[in-house]
Write a structure and sequence with these properties.
The protein is α/β, with parallel strands linked by helices. It has eight helices and five strands. It has a single domain, classed as P-loop containing nucleotide triphosphate hydrolases (Rossmann fold), CATH 3.40.50.300. A five-stranded parallel beta sheet has the order 2-3-1-4-5, sandwiched between helices. The longest helix is centred in the middle third of the chain and has 15 residues. The chain is globular, with a radius of gyration of 15 Å. The structure holds shikimate-3-phosphate. Shikimate-3-phosphate binds next to loops.
Length: 167
């Protein structure tokens, strides 16, 4: 089981926080998007174009199932992965940290990113709203990703992990 699993919408800072935290912990940082791209042999944007979102979600869920068995790791999950029921089940018992970003701040951070195919989607805000419930429901700890820097979140999370165990 990973030390911590980072969840939150696109642009919440999961990868930056995860990288910093893993470095402090001497753990491995794993980004589910990177693993999915490795498995597909193409970028996420290309996979959406060639095979569609449903296929991407299937590979994403399978990849995450495997990642959630990895020891001594900090794992960041793609922002849409919690829409999968199977993935939610696997998060039971994991130490889930939620990086809570507002829709406006997320958009300001990710607009124009060519490797995030959903940025152009018209119903992105309704996806955001739909996901909020799952993020907070599964979170053991939540951080305000609008106000806090990734450095501050990583430091606070490290403190909480150390408090709760002998890390
Ligand atoms: C997605 C988020 C992305 C990536 C894909 C779809 C989403 O990950 O998995 O573009 O549905 O919100 P990040 O949250 O790491 O950007």
């Amino acid at each position: 089981m990973p030390i911590v699993v980072l969840v939150g919408f696109m642009g919440s800072g999961k990868s930056s926080v995860g990288r910093k935290l893993a470095r402090s912990l001497g753990a491995t940082f794993i980004d589910s998007d990177v693993k999915v791209e490795e498995r597909l042999g193409m970028t996420i944007a290309a996979a959406f174009r060639q095979f569609g979102e449903m296929y991407f979600r299937k590979i994403e869920a399978e990849t995450i199932e495997h990642l959630l068995t990895t020891e001594n790791a900090v794992v960041a999950l793609g922002g849409g992965s919690l829409e999968d029921e199977g993935t939610l089940e696997l998060l039971r018992g994991q130490f889930v940290a939620y990086l809570d970003v507002s829709y406006g701040v997320s958009m300001a951070r990710i607009k124009g990113d060519p490797n995030r195919p959903l940025v152009q989607s018209e119903e992105l805000e309704s996806r955001y709203l739909r996901r909020l419930g799952s993020y907070s429901k599964w979170a053991k700890v939540t951080f305000d990703a609008d106000r806090l820097t990734t450095e501050q979140i990583a430091t606070a999370l490290l403190g909480q992990l150390r408090e709760g165990s002998d890390l």
